[in-house]
Amino acid sequence: MDPSFGLTSRAGVAQAGHRWPICRTVSDAVEVLDVILGFDKRDEATRTASKYKPRGGYKQFLNANGLKGKRLGLVRHPFFMFENGSVLPQVFEHHFHTLRQGDAILVDHLEIANIDVILSFSEEDAELEAEFKISVTPVRTLADVIAFNNKFSHLEKIKEYGQDILLRAEDTNGINKKNLLKLARLSKNGFEKLMKEHELDALVTPRYDVSPFLAIGGFPGISVPAGYDNEGIPFGICFGGLKGR
């Protein structure tokens, strides 16, 4: 589960990164969220986001019949384009049937404006790298992390995995405000517009493919287990939406 921007503190976390409680059940995730949300003097954004915190916490909204009447959007391209022979199409159609049985309203074959631009948008990665360098500094400088990895390269498996993101982040020189404004415009005219025009409660995608859209706008999302692919690797189904929904 990735909460709305500012709902939980970013202190010690890359600002464009994710703060995901990983739990066994949705109920457990809500229990954790109720504990970790709230104001943190080290992160001013938590003051602004306090308006989204319901009195009594989120646990009160756990409801076995909570899908009834909820409008769930499906963007087939490119999220549900799978390889030939994949078990995923059949698995997700089964999940869609389950959602309909819960009286959810599935709004199918939607399109997000500028979706290809966002999915190939290098500026998002650049801002993440810049924020990563800034956010890590209070704990340990990024240069120290890189040096540690080089010193213990065998243990850290640098040959196998590298540390390209860390190196690019170290080379950044701060946040590019023009990039942030461009990302905000893309979000407003794309994902946010889709959600509002179709009055959606959530957008449903396989795995966590919608994460770039949620990260750009600081929107919440939750991914729950959905099955196993042809190679036995587990995957999830993600529900992402606007703040305060």
Determine the mean pLDDT. 85
Number of helices: 12
Number of DSSP-assigned strands? 5
Specify the structural class: alpha/beta
Rg, Cα atoms, Å: 19 Å
Question: Which range does the strand content fall in?
Answer: 5-15%
**Largest sheet, spatial ordering of strands:** 2-1-3-5-4
SSE topology string: HHEHHEHHHHHHHEHEE
How far is the N terminus from the C terminus? 14 Å
How would a textbook summarize the main sheet? 5 strands, mixed
**Proportion of residues in helical segments:** 40-55%
Q: Stretches where pLDDT falls below 50 for ≥5 residues? A: none
What does the oligomeric state look like here?
single chain
- Gross morphology is globular
Task: Give an overview of the whole structure.
This protein is α/β, with parallel strands linked by helices. The chain has twelve helices and five strands. The protein has helices at residues 26-36, 45-48, 76-79, 88-101, 115-119, 122-136, 142-151, 158-161, 164-170, 177-189, 191-197, 211-217; strands at 71-74, 105-107, 202-206, 221-228, 234-240. The longest helix has 15 residues, at 122-136. It is globular. The mean pLDDT is 85.
Architecture blueprint of SSEs:
Blueprint: H1 26-36, H2 45-48, E1 71-74, H3 76-79, H4 88-101, E2 105-107, H5 115-119, H6 122-136, H7 142-151, H8 158-161, H9 164-170, H10 177-189, H11 191-197, E3 202-206, H12 211-217, E4 221-228, E5 234-240
Parallel strand pairs: 1-2, 1-3
Antiparallel strand pairs: 3-5, 4-5
